[in-house]
UniProtKB/TrEMBL annotation:
<keyword id="KW-0274">FAD</keyword>
<dbReference type="Pfam" id="PF00732">
    <property type="entry name" value="GMC_oxred_N"/>
</dbReference>
<feature type="signal peptide">
    <location>
        <begin position="1"/>
        <end position="20"/>
    </location>
</feature>
<feature type="domain" description="Glucose-methanol-choline oxidoreductase N-terminal">
    <location>
        <begin position="108"/>
        <end position="131"/>
    </location>
</feature>
<dbReference type="InterPro" id="IPR027424">
    <property type="entry name" value="Glucose_Oxidase_domain_2"/>
</dbReference>
<comment type="similarity">
    <text>Belongs to the GMC oxidoreductase family.</text>
</comment>
<dbReference type="GO" id="GO:0050660">
    <property type="term" value="F:flavin adenine dinucleotide binding"/>
</dbReference>
<keyword id="KW-0560">Oxidoreductase</keyword>
<dbReference type="InterPro" id="IPR000172">
    <property type="entry name" value="GMC_OxRdtase_N"/>
</dbReference>
<protein>
    <recommendedName>
        <fullName>Glucose-methanol-choline oxidoreductase N-terminal domain-containing protein</fullName>
    </recommendedName>
</protein>
<dbReference type="GO" id="GO:0016614">
    <property type="term" value="F:oxidoreductase activity, acting on CH-OH group of donors"/>
</dbReference>
<dbReference type="InterPro" id="IPR036188">
    <property type="entry name" value="FAD/NAD-bd_sf"/>
</dbReference>
<dbReference type="InterPro" id="IPR012132">
    <property type="entry name" value="GMC_OxRdtase"/>
</dbReference>
<keyword id="KW-0285">Flavoprotein</keyword>
<keyword id="KW-0732">Signal</keyword>
Length: 441
């Protein structure tokens, strides 16, 4: 079984066209990219897209085009002020996708994607969860290092952590230096305005008594099955402003990377292929349009690759518009099927959220939560934990059959569910995140 973490479409070589208008920096002008040829075109300027574009642009011989549907809102307080968390939801910086259940799904529609509007909590998963990638990969894929030991080094390489000062230590902050990087582009730190009220310390004291979960100094070392105070993706050297992917990877270099053009307020509408009927399919560029939906289409060409990094919702939609998806869905919509790949747009798994609210007397406390607990199955259910584990294991076949469709068969789903169940039952992966938000909404 293969897991596609990113789609890379290899492009045919094209002759370079004469560069006109703006050739680097950030622009909303269609003319800057229309008819131009780049080495790489990255569709989606969110967390991963900006990171990929930035790494590619380190080579001054390359020309990179990054296309982002949202605008450049780095100077908007709803973006740079971490304490404005939640204010962007439902507004122009939020995709606010409607669902068939009558609820809306939030997502960052701005440069930096959701890293520009989320809560900014700086945590990492369980070591075994990263190692589990290899359980679903082919042997040659496993050999490149899809595991915790390999990825942990890259996590630290991306990070510039500011350790807690004396006042923050007094409020409960702590850290393990070996878990953090100190010279990466993405900043992490405890907030100067950390809340010192009784609620946070009460959570740290109460959760262990209720669940048996232990306190730990730092959640980021691959063993987060504990309760602790967490840092945020903020820059302690810049007034605790948010360190989004845009602030981390674009802002420091946008005026010096002359080969990197970022086109905002535009959406990719489809991948262009050399010949739709020739296998293997070779991408030659991207058709794009203004996000405001005026209907006019533009084209940019790629010498090397088209990289699709538009997020878990927009990526499958873009692939389907490009003719990559379930032909039974595409053809009734008048979309020519290029690759009949029925798994596109299927098997999305989302987290649930349960909220308990109470009125308090302190209305001035920051909204963000510093204290977070990650109990496992046995800590959550106590004496009935083993029975719940047995229920999970005995239900795998039924769950796989009930969720199977033309995209994924029951055997494939069973394999995925088996990996997830093993993490929960045998590796004690947390099944719940417990935290407080003071004064929100």
């Amino acid at each position: 079984m293969h897991i596609s973490l990113a789609l890379v479409c290899y492009a045919a070589s094209l002759f370079s066209s004469t560069v006109g208008n703006q050739t680097w920096g950030v622009t909303s002008s269609s003319d800057a990219a229309d008819g131009q040829t780049f080495d790489y075109i990255v569709v989606g300027g969110g967390l991963s897209g900006i990171t990929v574009a930035a790494r590619l642009s380190e080579n001054p011989a390359l020309r990179i085009l990054l296309i982002e549907a949202g605008g450049d809102n780095r100077t908007n307080p709803e973006v740079y002020n971490i304490f404005a968390f939640g204010q962007a939801y439902g507004g122009p910086l939020d995709w606010n996708w409607p669902t068939d259940m009558g609820r809306n799904e939030a997502g960052g529609k701005t440069l930096g994607g959701s890293s520009s509007i989320n809560g900014g909590t700086w945590t990492r998963g369980v070591k075994a969860q990263y190692d589990a990638f290899s359980d679903l990969l082919e042997p040659w894929e496993r050999s490149v290092g899809w595991n915790w030991d390999s990825l942990f080094g890259y996590m630290k390489k991306a990070e510039s952590f500011s350790p807690p000062d004396a006042q923050q230590l007094e409020k409960g902050a702590n850290s393990v230096p070996s878990f953090h990087g100190t010279s990466g582009p993405v900043h992490s730190a405890f907030l100067d305005a950390m809340y010192a009220g009784p609620q946070q310390k009460a959570l740290l004291a109460t959760v262990p008594k209720l669940t048996g979960i232990e306190y730990c100094k730092d959640l980021t070392g691959g063993m987060p099955n504990c309760v602790s105070m967490t840092p945020f993706s903020v820059n302690a050297h810049d007034h605790d402003n948010r360190s989004s992917s845009a602030a981390a990877y674009l802002t420091p270099v946008e005026n010096i990377r002359k080969g990197w053009l970022t086109l905002v307020n535009h959406m990719g509408t489809k991948i262009l292929f050399q010949n739709n009927s020739t296998i293997p399919h070779v991408a030659t560029g991207v058709e794009f349009a203004r996000t405001n939906g005026t209907g006019e289409r533009f084209t940019a060409y790629a010498r090397k690759e088209v990289i699709v990094s538009a997020g878990s919702i927009q990526t499958p939609a873009f692939l389907q518009l490009s003719g990559i998806g379930d032909s039974n869905l595409l053809e009734p919509l008048g979309i020519e099927t290029v690759i009949d790949l029925k798994t596109v747009g299927r098997n999305l798994q989302e987290q649930t959220s349960s909220i308990l609210a109470a009125h308090g007397h302190n209305t001035t406390a920051p909204d963000l939560s510093d204290a977070i607990a990650f109990p496992n199955l046995y800590q959550l259910f106590g004496s009935s934990g083993k029975a719940e584990a047995q229920k999970i294991h005995s239900s795998l076949d039924r769950l796989a059959s009930s969720q199977a469709n033309s995209a994924l068969n029951a055997d494939a789903l069973r394999e995925i569910f088996e990996v997830q169940a093993k993490l929960i039952i045998e590796n004690n992966a947390p099944v719940l995140e417990v935290f407080q938000i003071i004064g929100y909404p």
